[in-house]
Amino acid sequence: MRWLCPLCRRLPWTCACPPGSPVTKTTSGGLWAAALAWHEPPWSLFVQRLKYGEETFLAEWLGAWLSSALEVFPREVALVPVPLHERKLADRGYNQAALIARASAKKRGTKVLFDGLVRVKETDAQAQLSAEERTKNLASGFAATRSFAGLPLIIVDDVVTTGATSDALCDAIVKAGGTVLGVVSVTLARPIGL
Ligand SMILES: [Zn+2]
Q1: Pairing of strands 152-160, 32-38
Q2: Tell me: the pLDDT tens digits for 81-96?
Q3: Ligand 1 mean position, distance from CA 5 (Å)
Q4: How far is the CA of 35 from the centre of ligand 1 (A)?
Q5: Which residue among 121, 161, 182, 192 is the one 20 to 30 A from 24 at the CA level?
Q6: Ligand 1 centroid – CA 102 distance (Å)
Q7: How far is the CA of 99 from the centre of ligand 1 (A)?
């Protein structure tokens, strides 16, 4: 029964599991990051199963629970999942961050922006961009393909380690005129000493 709650093994309508104990830290680039829990079992296992085990149903649970970590942000602020490189997306068949963001937004009644940002770390993806975009974004690993002018956004990912990925995505959004209020993920790597 793949759709059972990963914590209590009950059906959705009988599960009353608490959504973890939200934790926060600051990324190396200074972004405020919040998550359901530190990257430790059982949460780290759910992230791995979702990411590498094709257990996409987990995004429904994790995304819905994640809306509790999003409570600190205004409800109007749209979510933006960290994009996968197109080749990785083709291999995996889904972007786990996008699935989490979709489930979370559904629970919250918020919008998700699935388009407008691409991962450009690998050189072949650069071909899709204009020369200007290429130069602008070469260093960051992400490029915006639309304007984000006047748009406050929240980045959504499955796990945040140092936060370098979110920082790079934030750079691309800011270069395209947007602002990033923070990053929300299922788990956060526990800072040393905590
Ligand atoms: Zn449960």
Answers
A1: unpaired
A2: 999 998 899 999 999 9
A3: 5
A4: 18
A5: 121
A6: 20
A7: 19
